[in-house]
Amino acid sequence: MAARAQRAKEDPIAAYLRELEVQQRASPHTLRAYRRELGRLRDALAEDPAKDVDWTAVTSDDLRRFLSARGKDVGRRSLGRTVSVLRSFFSHLRRTGEAEQNPASGLGLPRFPHTLPRFVSEKELERVFEPPAALDATSARDRVLLELLYGSGLRASEAVGLDWRDVATADRRLHVRSGKGNKDRIVPMSRAAASALADLAQIQRTTGGDRGAATPIFRNQHGGRLSVRSVGPIVAAAMEAAGLAPVNPHALRHSCATHLLDHGADLRSIQDLLGHASLSTTQRYTHVSLAQLRSVHRRFHPRS
Question: On the chain, which terminus has fewer CB atoms closer than 10 Å, C or N?
Fold first, then answer.
């Protein structure tokens, strides 16, 4: 009874987020996104800002009004994520006995148009990876970053999270710690990435930078770990320097998967490389390759 009383006094949103973090090993990014979304819901439902929301009194109509207002500010994909957050949160409240019903259970997800992952062609990437005229600490760092995003298919968060202890250049492998879903995995790296890492290590030694085992590989101008937000401008600048349209970092990951599939890699191996929890996520790239195949067929087949 005492434990139940203590739980009843705790903020339901805080308790839910702690469950996500401890039991489901949700990433800090996911926790921040869920906290923001539930904060918006609390603000929308609170009649008196000084008092907490009575979550047991929330109805499906309340949630639909919230989603209708939210839909004026965001696209359908973002709205779909909001629906998922509401379903999960109210499921938690019902499971813990803090709500008798789940008013979000009947909420429908908006339909999304079928879109293919954006990627960069092999020929275009050859221009991005042309050897630089000279290397300094920044250009060497950016070169390694690009090589790992494309060559090993890393997410931006996984790349900036790498420490020197996580790379084995002789074996050409990386230890990705706490990837999506807080899962670790070992992935290969290309010869070009291993060479770029060796160059970066030499420059950091020459400039007197700390290269301890737990030191970040990718550092900002102040010596701290490079942020995920900084990766986008680095990728955009590299594309611009190559005379190409800007893309986000994830496009290099998409390119990695697409080119592997084009050259005969099987889906299961690509799934393991990218750290996808479901093979259905990896199967998106079959559609990309089919689109390429149709394009080639139309261009070159005499009866197309």
Answer: N
